[in-house]
Each structure stands twice: as C-alpha cells, then as structure tokens.
Amino acid sequence: MKTVPEAERYSTEDSETNSEELSEQKSTNVSFSFFLYRLIAYADARRSIASFIVVLSVVVLVDIIFNKYLFVPYIELVESLSNASLGGFAELDIGFAPEVWQALLGMILGTLILVISIASQSIPKLIDLYMKDVPSLLYIWLLIISGGHALIIKIYGEIGIVRESSRIFNTHFLLTICAIIAFPYVFYILRYTKPTNIINRIYNNNMDQITALTSKRNRALSHIPDVVEYQQYSIFEALNQLDDILEFVSFKELKADIVHDMCLTLQNYIRLKPDIAPAFFKVSPKIRTDISFKTMVGQFGEMERNQSFYEQKCFRLMGNVYIRLLEHGEFDLSSMVTGEMANLGLTAIESEDEAIIELVIIRFNTFFRMAFKHAIGTNEPRNIYNLSFFYGQFIKYLVEHNKVDQVKSCFGYLRFYGVEIAKTFPKVPSVYFDVAAIAFEMKKLLEQIHHERWDIEIQKALVNEILQVDNPPDFNKDDLDEGIKLTNTVRNIQFGLALFYQSEGVEEFVEQIAKDILDDLDYLGESTFYRVLGMIEGLMRFGGPTFWEDTDRGNVNIFFTHNKDQIDGFKKRLHDLAEAKLKKKTKDKYFLTNTEMDLLWEMSRLTKVKEVEQIITKVANFELILSELQNIDEARLEGLVSLREKLNFNSENPKLIVTNSRQVAVGTLLKISGIISGSNKQKEIEATVQLNTPNFIFVNISSTADSKIFEKFSSLTVCFRPLRQKMIYQFKAAPQGTGTNKLQRIAHADAVKIIEEL
C-alpha cells in the first residue's frame, strides 16, 4: 500500500508527464499548421505554377483511370447505342487534334489579350488580378496541357505506339469539354473585366483574408513574424488596389462603390478585431515602408498600443481621396466620404473602441481643415456645409451612446472651425454661411442632449460653445459687411435655440442666449439691432420647414422652428434687456439720475429711428425733440436743464455751433443792448446767465441801475462769446420781466447768428 507522500509524488509526476505530452502535441499542431500555411502561401503566391501542377496531375490521373476502368465500358456503351461493332481505334486519325487545340487556344488567348489590354487602361491592377484568377488559370492550363496531350498521342502514333484509350479520352472528352467551355469562358472574362465586378472581387477577397485572421490556425501562427507580415501586406495590398483604381476611373458610380467598399471593409474589420490575435497588431517592417506611412515613423509605437495600424491606413487613404475629390469639384462624392466616416465612427462607438473613436474625430477635423483651405482658394462653401452635417451625425451617435467627453471635445472643435471661418469673412464672404451650418448642427445636438437629460452644467458649457461659434476673440465686428450685420444667420440659429429652451422652461439657458444676442447692440446700434430682431422674427414666424431651392442636403430650412408660439415672449425679453442695458450704459457714461435717464429715453422714443444715440450724439435732434415734450413739471424741467449740461449741449462745448438761445451756458457773460421806450438812444448793459430753461433765460444784472434800464427795454439784442470758443454770437429777444427767483427773464430765440470770428 502506498503512503500519502508517495501517492502525491506519483500524482505530480503524472501531471508533469501529461503537461509535457500536451505541450508536445500543441507544438506538433503548430508545426503542422505552419507547414500547411507555408504550403498554401506558396501556392497562393505562385498560382500559375500551382494551377499547372494541379491540371497536369488531374489530366494524367484521369487518363490512367479512363484507360483502366472506363475505356471498355465506354466502347460497349457506344456499340450498344449504335448497334454496331466498332472494332479497334488504332487506325483513328487524330492528325487534326493538335491544330484544333492550337486554334482553340489561340482564340481564347487572343480574346484575353484584347479584352484585358483594353480594360487595363482604366483599371491598372487588372492584369495582376487576372494572374490570380484560379478558374482562368485552370482553364488556360487545361487547354495547353490537353493540346500537348494530343501532340504526344500523334507523335507516338507515327512511330507505331498507339494508346487507343488516350485517343478517345483526348478527342471525345477533353476536346469536347474545352470547346463547350470556350464561349462561356469568353463571356466570363468580359464580365470579369467589368469594373464593378473587379471592385467586388477585391473587396470579397480582402474580407476573406480578414475573416481568416480570426481562425484558430491563424491565431496559432500569430507569433511567427513572417506569417504576420504576409497577412498584413495582403490586406494592405487590397486597399492599395482599390485606391489605384479609384484614381484612374472616371465614373462616379465606380468611385462611390470603391469608397463604400473601403469603408465597409474597415467597419467589418473593427467588428472582427477583438477575435484577432494581439500579436497580429505589431507593425511589421514591410508595413512600415508602406507609402501611407512614410511620414508617420514616430507613430508606430502608438499604433501598436492602440492596435490601429489598419485603421490608420484606411484613414490616410480616405484623406487622400477626399482631397482629390475636392480638387476635382465632385461635391457629392466628397460628401459621401464624410458620410462613410460617420458610419465608421458609429461602428467604433458600438464596438467600444475608444482609440478608433478618437481617430475618427481627428479625421473629421482633418477633413474640416482640408475643406476650409479649399473654400478659401475657390470661394466655394458647399463642402464645409455638407461636412458639417455628417460631423453632426457622428456627434449624434456619440450623444446616443452617452460619450460625454468626446461630445464636449467635438463641440469645442466645431466652435474652433466656426471661428476660423468667421475670421476669413473679409477675404471670402460666401463661406460665412457655413458658420450658420455649423451652428445648426450644434443646435440639433443641444436639443437632443436636453431630451437625453444630461447634467445641467454640461449643457451650459455646450450652450456657451454655440454662442462663441461666430465670435472670434481678435476680430473686429465693425469690419463686417453691412449685409452680414443685418442678416447674421448664426443669430437666427441661436434665436431658434432660445425659443426651444423657452418652450422647455429652461430659463437659465434662455437668459444666457438672450444676453449673448444683446452683445450685437454694441456694434449694430439700437435701431439696427431692433431692425435685425424684426427680420429674425419674420424669418422664424413665417418660414416653413423646407426651403424654396434645393441644396446638396435637400431643401431643408435650417432656420425653421417648431416653437413659433414662443417668439413674442422672447422678443419682449430681448427688448427689455436692451432697454435696461442702454439705460445703464448711458447713465454710467453721463452720470445721469433716474429722472434724467427717463427724460432722455422718452425723447429718444420720439425720434424717427427711436434710438438713444440719436439724442446723445446729435444736438439738433435734442433741440427738435425738446420742443415736442409735454407735461413738463418742475422736476422734469430741472432734469432737462441738468441733462443738457451733462450731455454738453451748450456753448461750453468748443465743438458746438450755437443755433438757439437755449444752448447758452450758465455763467456766460451777455452784452444786452436795446432802446428805452420814448427815447432813440441805445443803451447797453451786461448780465450773467444764471439759469437756462427750455422756457426762459434767467440772467443776473449786477447793478441796480442797469436792472432798471433792462426793465425799460422793449426789445433786446444779445451778444455773447462762449469762454471756450473764438466766435461772437448774437440773437434778438424780448424781455419777460422778473421771475420768482428775482432774476430777469429773457425769451428764447430760435435763431442765433455768428457776427464775428476771432
């Protein structure tokens, strides 16, 4: 009986023995798999030789089998069907057979040369593809070997060596079969050279290679560098073939098929990638020398970490394709490229491949830079317009899958490119509409994010991005064309977004957008600002969901809003905010009291354009509106006097040309002359202005004698020189007696003239 330690020892030994056997078996399996792989790879690389060997072996083998087992039954069958004894076939003349085989071979090869030569003019890789077409290789070698078979039979027959079965096999079977196949094969070649079939063949072959990477055999061989290098080169070569064909073909349908197949290949690859051995993603030396990676030497380490070398290859090719399509003006195809990129992004999102998601974002940004440069050079905005839509579509997928960080990054990129486009307005005015296109995509996304109930702080940050999309930090909006100022399409989008938030009851965002729109007040001016608001209101209120013209994206009206019932409320909010801002700005600038500000605001509403600026900057308007004011009580009277002084609308202003007596400043020395009733002698006295109201000038006469003389004047001629001017003014007026403040009153004159310039 074994002790416990002995049992454990024997158990351990058995375990080690089993482990060694499994390891040896696994090693044997890998060796066999590698041998099989090398054999298949050799045959695949030399398909012509492999086809020759296969056909030769089959013909020889079937000839032997026919001679031993089928020749006699075949003779008996023929005799039974013909009811005649055929005798031997030794005397059968087959001298015609080599010539027939030569003619058949010549017809097929001539057809091939003609068809492929013509087709290869537009499809440069066609010859390479044909040399790997197994059915063609097998059939051509069958013709050659069968012809050689007939020639050998004839030569041996001439020297008396006759093999009757071979004669029957060649003429009755091989010749008949090859002749029957000849014409279907010609049609097969004609279909083969059709570009769509070639593209589909390349795609299918490439997908077969990619799918094979997930097999157990390929996973077991993934540690062998030569195997991995060949596999990587094979799937790269398919993409290069498609890219070469794309550059040569001129038909849009073919280009569209190629772009779609390239992107569909990458989508399938991304889905299959988790099942591929990790060792496969080490970038091999042959891949490092690929034309697409010549300038990416320092990024191979990152590619290996992210397992993204194949995606990088596809993205580089897509970028090159996009540039070529832009340069050739093929807007629909260039838009298709960006649409396929959005689909690639969706596949990466569904596969939870964060590295590829980032690469898709980078590629979209690269497309934006390419389209932007093209727009500047050609003054063509439509590529950015289309790209904005598909970038927005990709971000929509991110929102649906709650990719918050990537959404925030993409909003920042959209804002950046919007600012870049806005800055180019003086040079390329037509592209300014693309800023609105970007804002429209951001608006749609913000509405979706609100419905998804994202965190309010995140939404606030994203709303801030759309408000900055047309606001370059170092750009002077005064440089904008007047037409752009009046039809700022970005404001239309932001206005519509505010209506949405107002309908949803999100007052914080409504206020945020309203305050940003209010910034236009500074450079538009009050009247223009209100006019622009009216234009936006009309566009929102009467615009339908479709436009009356067609674009690359249909006739959708990007300025349409479903929240028309919110227009009046938001418009009133903007007017109230504008009034408050204007009042505060004016009060702070001129140090006005509330009464003075109210008077100024009332006067501004009486102007034609209803603008405060028309009163505070134009003295003529101030004087004109002053005469129209009503219900002027003592408080309002004092306010008007003070308002004139603070606005500097009096003779103390060296730039003011005095036009009426209401503009005479307090403290001005007046020389008053007149004729006393009953006397023809003119008297002259001096007085100082103590108060100047809209009704009278109140003056102080220092001497009692002069005061008595003033009271006797029936009419006055007043001369004065403002302290800060070099002109002497004169006006005629009538005395109005003494006021309640013990000051002498002079009626106002609406005409003041300059009598001397010093």
Tell me the radius of gyration: 47 Å
Mean pLDDT across the residues is 85
Number of strands: 10
Share of residues in helices: 55-70%
* Sheet with the most strands, sense and barrel status: 8 strands, antiparallel
Count of separate DSSP helical elements: 30
Class per helix and strand makeup: alpha+beta
| Cα end-to-end separation | 141 Å
Shape: rod-shaped
Strand content: 5-15%
The neighbouring-strand order within the major sheet is: 8-9-5-4-3-6-7-10
Which stretches are low in confidence, meaning pLDDT under 50 for 5 or more residues running? Answer: none
Write the layout of secondary structure elements.
Blueprint: H1 4-45, H2 47-82, H3 96-119, H4 126-130, H5 134-158, H6 164-192, H7 195-212, H8 216-220, H9 225-248, H10 252-272, H11 285-288, H12 300-306, H13 309-327, H14 331-350, H15 354-378, H16 382-400, H17 404-423, H18 433-451, H19 456-467, H20 482-486, H21 489-504, H22 507-518, H23 520-524, H24 526-542, E1 546-551, E2 554-556, H25 567-590, H26 594-605, H27 612-616, H28 619-626, H29 634-647, E3 669-675, E4 682-692, E5 696-700, H30 704-712, E6 716-720, E7 727-733, E8 735-738, E9 744-747, E10 753-757
Antiparallel strand pairs: 1-2, 3-4, 3-6, 4-5, 5-9, 6-7, 7-10, 8-9
Describe the structure.
- Helices cover 66% and strands 8% of the residues.
- The protein is of the alpha+beta class and 758 residues long.
- Among the domains are: 39 residues; 147 residues, no CATH class; 108 residues; 57 residues, no CATH class; 97 residues, Electron Transport, Fmn-binding Protein, Chain A (Pnp Oxidase, Chain A, Roll).
- The strands form two sheets. The protein has an eight-stranded antiparallel β-sheet. It has a two-stranded antiparallel ribbon with strand order 1-2.
- Helix 10 packs antiparallel against helix 13, helix 17 packs parallel to helix 19 and helix 18 runs parallel beside helix 21.
- It is rod-shaped and about 170 Å long.
- The termini are far apart.
